[in-house]
Design goal:
Elements (H helix, E strand, L loop, with lengths): L12 E2 L2 E2 H17 L8 H7 L4 H4 L18 H13 L7 H6 L3 H13 L9
Antiparallel strand pairs: 1-2
Length: 127
């Protein structure tokens, strides 16, 4: 039986590496992948035009007009896609969003995501 270097404890080989080294390598690769920007597949210009229907609640700029509606400006592509698809499929329910999302095609969702995720904003913390 193989032992972990520097100890008498049994070690586990994973493709010739100790398990700890394998985990460290995997985590490093995942960190690199997560750091890569993800581009939306849709069109920002088309998304802006389609966002007119969203503007009543979320604003064309993605800053909500009502206290019970989330800001979506600059939100991540992954989050926006998951939420719109959840509303469309019925996995997530909301009085207005469930109705609006049912009429969205995959292309509509991609365009809206391209628009809202591309909006940049800054946050200023109070002193």
């Amino acid at each position: 039986m193989r032992t972990t270097p520097g100890t008498d404890a049994p070690g586990v080989a994973y493709f010739g590496l100790d398990l700890m080294k394998a985990h460290a390598t995997t985590l490093a690769i995942l960190a690199l992948l997560a750091a890569q920007p993800v581009a939306a597949a849709g069109s920002k210009e088309t998304g802006r035009a389609k966002a007119r229907q969203c503007a009543v609640c979320h604003g064309i700029d993605g800053v909500s007009k009502r206290p019970d509606v989330p800001h979506i400006a600059g939100e991540s592509i992954i989050y926006l896609k998951a939420q719109l698809e959840a509303f469309r499929s019925g996995k997530r329910h909301h009085r207005e969003m469930s109705i609006v999302a049912q009429g969205l095609s995959d292309a509509d969702i991609a365009d809206l995501i391209a628009w809202y995720s591309a909006i940049e904003f800054t946050v200023v913390l109070p002193e």
